[in-house]
């Protein structure tokens, strides 16, 4: 089942811009990855991704993000009914 996973971290957009490029280059090659967005809202900085399954996301996140991002990251997982790609 596809999922939307929202990650919140105590970082600024500038910190994201500094740390994200090498991770995004790897992310684009991951099986199950569909889309990545980042934005600042009233609750802080958010990175949201859509994946084909939560297991694919978790494997990527545990292997690549946790060891390379020095911020505490909270996650919210939302099961999606439908994903339409161009």
What does this entry look like structurally?
The chain is an alpha+beta fold. Helix content is 31%, strand content 35%. A hairpin with a 2-residue loop joins strand 2 and strand 3. The longest helix is centred in the first third of the chain and has 15 residues, at 13-27. The chain is globular and about 30 Å long. The two termini are 19 Å apart. The mean pLDDT is 94.
What is the architecture at the second tier of CATH?
A: 2-Layer Sandwich
| SS content category | alpha+beta
User: Which fold name fills CATH's third level, the topology?
Assistant: Alpha-Beta Plaits
Strand content: 25-35%
Individual helix count: 2
> What Rg do the Cα atoms give?
12 Å
Task: Estimate the global geometry from the Cα principal axes.
Answer: globular
The helicity comes to 25-40%
- Unreliable parts: none
Question: How many beta-strand runs?
Answer: 4
CATH uppermost class: Alpha Beta
Q: Report how far the terminal alpha carbons are from each other.
A: 19 Å
Q: Strand order within the widest sheet?
A: 2-3-1-4
**Mean pLDDT value:** 94
Which series of helices and strands comes N to C?
A: EHEEHE
Overall number of domains: 1
Indicate the multimeric state: single chain
Q: The biggest beta sheet, please?
A: 4 strands, antiparallel
């Amino acid at each position: 089942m596809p999922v939307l996973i929202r990650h919140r971290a105590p970082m600024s957009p500038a910190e994201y811009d500094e740390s994200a490029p090498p991770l995004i280059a790897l992310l684009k090659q991951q099986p199950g990855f569909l889309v990545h967005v980042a934005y600042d809202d009233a609750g802080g900085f958010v990175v949201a991704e859509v994946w084909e399954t939560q297991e694919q996301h978790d494997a990527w996140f545990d292997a690549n993000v946790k060891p390379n991002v020095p911020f505490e990251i909270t996650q919210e997982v939302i099961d999606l009914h439908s994903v339409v790609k161009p």
